[in-house]
């Protein structure tokens, strides 16, 4: 198996919203994923080791199911959650989740929306969502949200970090998306590359250790 070609195909497979992905004319996104999977499958089957072939094919099938499940759960897009119980379920279920608590009367919330919408397709393994504070009064009180915009980062159901207002982004409305991206990377809720993809086949970065003062978001 050509490791460079396999790595390239795998990157395209696990980043379905990557703008650099090529797509055949007239095909939809699912067809494109199936074509990439078939090509990567062929690469693995060409390997001379039967054990590697069998293991690699099993990993790819599992990865394909994982990606379809994430797509069904709105990964890769910046969506709104309106029900308070759904917010709790999403934050507890998703391995990585970013939730923006906003109000329509705040201009800076609109600015935050714009930047998060740009980052959502780039970090497919992280769920991005926003919540209108008037729809979730219990959560606003429980989480102690008093200043907007408020972006809370969850990792494995635990509140890892929160970004309040624009103080850490230069305290100005014209900050770059890259500044927010770097700040979120420091929280461990997003990371360069895909830390969950095809781990037995390709080297990945180590996961971030949990701090003792992490807040468990539990009903």
From TrEMBL:
Residues 1-34 are annotated as: Disordered. CDD domains: Phd_like_TxnDC9 (cd02989). InterPro entries: Thioredoxin-like_sf. Gene3D superfamilies: Glutaredoxin. Residues 1-11 have a biased composition (Low complexity). This is Thioredoxin-like protein. It comes from Agrocybe chaxingu.
């Amino acid at each position: 198996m050509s490791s460079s070609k396999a790595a390239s195909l795998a990157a395209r497979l696990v980043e379905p919203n990557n703008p650099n992905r090529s797509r055949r004319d007239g095909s939809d996104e699912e067809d494109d994923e199936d074509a990439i999977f078939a090509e990567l499958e062929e690469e693995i089957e060409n390997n001379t080791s039967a054990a590697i072939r069998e293991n690699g094919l099993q990993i790819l099938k599992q990865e394909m199911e994982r990606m379809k499940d994430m797509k069904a759960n709105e990964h890769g897009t910046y969506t709104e959650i309106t029900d308070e119980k759904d917010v709790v379920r999403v934050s507890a279920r998703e391995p990585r989740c970013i939730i923006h608590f906003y109000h329509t009367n705040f201009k800076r919330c609109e600015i935050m929306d714009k930047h998060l919408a740009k980052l959502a397709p780039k970090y497919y393994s992280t769920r991005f969502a926003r919540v209108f504070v008037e729809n979730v009064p219990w959560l606003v009180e429980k989480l102690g949200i008093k200043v907007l915009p408020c972006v809370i980062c969850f990792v494995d159901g635990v509140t890892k970090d929160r970004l309040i207002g624009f103080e850490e982004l230069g305290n100005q409305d014209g900050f770059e998306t890259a500044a927010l991206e770097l700040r979120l990377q420091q929280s461990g809720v997003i990371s360069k590359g895909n830390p969950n993809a095809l781990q037995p086949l390709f080297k990945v970065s180590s996961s971030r250790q949990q701090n003792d003062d992490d807040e468990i978001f539990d009903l």
